[in-house]
Amino acid sequence: MTSSSLRPSYKEAQERLIKWCQNVTRNYESVKIRNFTSDFADGLAFCAIVHHYFPDEFDFNKLNRDNKQSNFDLAFRIAEEKAHVHQLLDSDDLIRGQLDKKCVFTYLLTLYHGLKHFETNKLVLR
């Protein structure tokens, strides 16, 4: 078996990442994730994912779906400060509705790895 056959296809990777997002956000009633575009358009999905790992950083229930700029900025700032995940997406582009599926996928994959790394280090330090 070659190493490339061990890696999931892009479609499989997308499906796995969507499942991870759904799992992490399952207790957030206002967040339903089925895709990498419209379901991330108001920033709440990003906030829910970050909040799942850093619940003491902000009160998720006080976020407003209509305050997209604040939602994006909050999620990206906490992800960078706490999990060292650099902001690969531009809030202004996202607010203008320029959600590129592959860019959102790439950021979420980076976020996934950063949060898993954070989680592993947290367990080691206990």
Automatic annotation (TrEMBL):
InterPro entries: CH_dom, CH_dom_sf, F-actin_Monoox_Mical. It comes from the Eukaryota. Its main location: other. It is found in: Endosome. Keywords: Coiled coil, Endosome, Phosphoprotein. Residues 11-116 form the Calponin-homology (CH) domain. GO terms for cellular component: endosome. This is Calponin-homology (CH) domain-containing protein.
